[in-house]
Design a protein that fits this description.
single chain; about 15% strand; 21 helices
Length: about 625
């Protein structure tokens, strides 16, 4: 039996619940070496980054190679409101319950948040209330520099692309050969027969899909022109910036399984085609090795802790729409070995279960070889009322009275959304536990209605949770339910689709889970599917890029819509990461800032050095 040790602290909770940053600052974190010792991590397997963070080295997997894994749990949610339904808070609260109250070895595995939303509209992603990762300001800001490493690597590749086009346009074949492939000491070319192909890639500028990135929300960089300097000889082309976590390099980091695997994936990233229609990779540009050097430390997960002293791995932060929205494979693998049999690894999947959990199952688990036993679906009375036909929920505006007073009929009408998420998730062969994240305005009749609907839809259990207000103590019943679900898995794990069917068949299989009656493709999407099939990429899994606010492509269609035709506007590929991503409607890869961004409230107390206003 895997049990925890003495590093877990009991919280002195207050009511009403103070601001997140005040709660985080009220708890003195343990030195991270104590958290590492609790996990039986040898000091040779981690590097300290200050007092409260450490990078866990992949070498620990070699020492634990013969060890058995613990239980593997993924946390998803129903289709959310723009306010979010508390998946991160539930993930942390569940782990605090398992570790501090149920005496289980447990590791929380979460994504590193982007600074764009932190200073934009969403705020941080460390959880909330008495269920947080601390120090929350370090978690939400620079952490150990992984996103900065992704940014540097991404932009080095972008620079390599434009530079290569520039030099090929301005130099003769002979000059290119001499500069790119200088002779060795014997006077012979270094690359032999590869010289000609390597020296003139003949990139088609119109085919380039690789864009620069930065970790700030800046709508004015969505479309730019480059090459306007006098020395660039009129080589102007249109491009743009994405937010850093939308970079394919971030998706590579999350899906890689080793340093060698990361090197191969980085080299396989396709940046566009040559003028003959053949794919051009980072390896072709000769930059893959340098990208790996920039990412060599980022591959190691960061160890942190919760408010109650349970361990947390923070690693990778891919977008949950154009990428797969899950933390890293290597963090999960290390964690599963460290907790051992009877222990628990709980990881969060971005957005609703139709996006994050589907991609966790069909992409992340496919590449990791890991099989979960349980999926937790987080639901709120508020969101279910919205799906039942309630008024629009808008971030920054007060909630309508319908969400603050009892209305069981409205709630029950929206439970069709929860039921579909349960049904879809059970199809993978895992038990589903519904966590009802309770708000102070929820009534007993409403909470009972959610539990009843969840059980009728096939959930293993449904539990009301108060972890935001009470920490781990408020999620003990959830922890007990999750333990039971993991110990009683009824059937073997299975994927939604095999890889050897066509791209369209895979898209169709996912669309069916949304409730779609069919799929329609634009002319551009048809062209891209044909091209990827001809280039040999049709055996990759699918990563649907669609709105998180509906099962469909239309964010206004709430509940569990059926009979709609899913519209695929375009199809693109992240070959290095290892997936094809169809664009369902218009997806922004560079968020903008609202009228009143979060940064209005963020400041520094220059006397104490404490950050204030971060949430």
């Amino acid at each position: 039996m895997s049990t925890s040790s003495t590093t877990h602290r009991k919280l002195n909770v207050q009511s009403p619940v103070p601001a997140d940053i005040d709660i985080a600052n009220s708890v003195e974190p343990l030195h991270i070496s104590e958290i590492a010792q609790d996990l039986n991590l040898d000091p040779k397997h981690y590097d300290l980054y200050g007092k409260y963070k450490a990078k866990v080295l992949l070498s620990v997997l070699d020492d634990l190679q013969g060890s058995e894994d613990g239980y593997y749990v993924v946390v998803g949610g129903i289709t959310p409101t723009p306010l979010g339904e508390g998946k991160s808070t539930t993930t942390v609260g569940l782990c605090q319950a398992l570790g501090s109250f149920l005496d289980k070895k447990v590791v929380t595995c979460v994504r590193q948040p982007s600074q764009g939303p932190t200073f934009g509209i969403k705020g941080g992603a460390a959880g909330g209330g008495y269920s947080q990762v601390i120090p929350m300001e370090e978690f939400n800001l620079h952490l150990t520099g992984d996103i900065h490493a992704v940014t540097a690597a991404n932009n080095l590749l972008a620079a390599a692309i434009d530079t290569r086009i520039f030099h090929e346009a301005s130099q003769s074949d002979k000059a290119l050969l001499n500069r790119l492939c200088p002779p060795n000491k014997e006077g012979k070319p270094r690359l032999g027969e590869k010289i000609k192909k390597f020296s003139r890639l003949d990139i088609d500028p119109d085919s380039i899909t690789w864009r620069r990135v930065m970790d700030v929300n800046d709508r004015f960089l969505r479309k730019i022109t480059v090459g306007q300097g006098p020395e660039e000889k009129g080589m102007v082309r249109e491009t743009g910036f994405d937010i850093a976590v939308a970079s394919e390099i971030m998706a590579v980091l999350a899906l890689t399984t080793s340093l060698a695997d990361m090197r191969e994936r980085l080299g396989n990233m396709v940046i566009g085609n040559n003028k003959a229609g053949e794919p051009i990779t980072a390896e072709d540009l000769g930059v893959a090795g340098a990208l790996t050097v920039l990412m060599k430390d980022a591959i190691n997960p960061t160890l942190m802790q919760t408010l109650e002293g349970t361990p947390v791995f923070v690693h990778a932060g891919p977008f949950a729409n154009i990428a797969h929205g899950n933390s890293s494979i290597v963090a999960d693998k290390i964690a599963l070995k460290l907790v051992g049999p009877g222990g628990f690894v709980v990881t969060e999947a971005g957005f609703g279960a139709d996006i994050g959990v589907e991609k966790f199952m069909n992409i992340k688990c496919r590449y990791s070889g890991l099989k979960p036993q349980c999926a937790v679906i987080v639901a709120t009375v508020r969101a279910l009322k919205m799906h039942g036909g309630g008024p629009q929920v808008v971030a920054g505006k007060p909630l309508d009275r319908a969400y603050l007073t009892e209305n069981v009929a409205l709630l029950e009408a929206g439970c069709v959304n929860l039921a579909r998420h349960i049904s879809n998730t059970r199809a993978y062969g895992v038990n589903v536990v519904v966590a009802v994240n309770m708000f102070s305005t929820d009534t007993e009749a409403e909470l009972n209605a959610v539990k009843s609907a969840a059980l009728s839809a096939g959930a293993y259990d449904a539990v009301v949770c108060t972890h935001h207000a009470h920490g781990g103590r408020g999620a003990v019943d959830l922890g007990i339910a999750v333990q039971g679900a993991c110990e009683n898995v009824p059937q073997p794990f299975k994927f939604l689709y095999p890889l050897d069917i066509s791209i369209k068949e895979k898209i169709g299989a996912i669309a069916k889970t949304y409730g779609a009656s069919g799929v329609e493709y634009s002319e551009q999407a048809e062209k891209q599917i044909k091209m990827y099939a001809e280039q040999g990429f049709s055996n990759l899994p699918i990563c649907m890029a669609k709105t998180q606010y509906s099962f469909s492509h239309d964010a206004s269609l709430k509940g569990a819509p059926t009979g709609f035709v899913l519209s695929i506007r375009d199809v693109r590929a992240s070959i290095g990461a290892g997936f094809i991503y169809p664009l369902v409607g218009t997806m922004s890869t560079m968020p903008g800032l609202p009228t009143r961004p979060c940064f209005f409230d963020i400041d520094l107390d220059t006397t104490t050095g404490k950050i204030i206003g971060l949430s």
